[in-house]
């Protein structure tokens, strides 16, 4: 056997094995919503909301959970085709092959440090591919809108809920 034939065969076998592992979806019975990919969003929220989240750990956890609940609620209000696109993006980000295609690394987002996440998102933001710009914009808008939809976060914006005066006309 020639060296070139061996290397080609080894490469093809490794690629087939990697593709098979990534395409294999075990039959796990979970909720159909998969709790809206809470773990993935909990990794992305600090990257998008840098400086807006509270510094105190207990307050930060409360704000994160409140934002995750708001994201779940926001997703239910999206058009069905937008929901499908978002779920496809989230599933790509959760799979190794999709992550490799979108970020250039197979390291799961959960195992990356915050600076690596920011660099990945900035790469998407200024990429020449409209698909990556759209993915960045969609995730950013969803997270930002969900965070600031909660009245307790309006103080960061110096926004106060309007009050309406009721005139008593007699």
Keywords:
170 residues, mainly alpha, 62% helix, 0% strand, signal, TAT leader-containing periplasmic protein
Quickly describe the structure.
The protein is mostly helical and 170 residues long.
Mean pLDDT: 79
Radius of gyration from CA coordinates: 21 Å
Strand content: under 5%
- Based on secondary structure, the structural category is mainly alpha
Question: Which of globular, elongated, flat, extended, rod-shaped describes the shape?
Answer: elongated
What is the makeup of the main sheet?
none
The total of helices stands at 7
Order of helices and strands: HHHHHHH
Helix content: 55-70%
Number of strands: 0
Taking pLDDT < 50 over at least 5 consecutive residues as the criterion, the unreliable ranges are 25-33
Could you give the distance between the termini?
102 Å
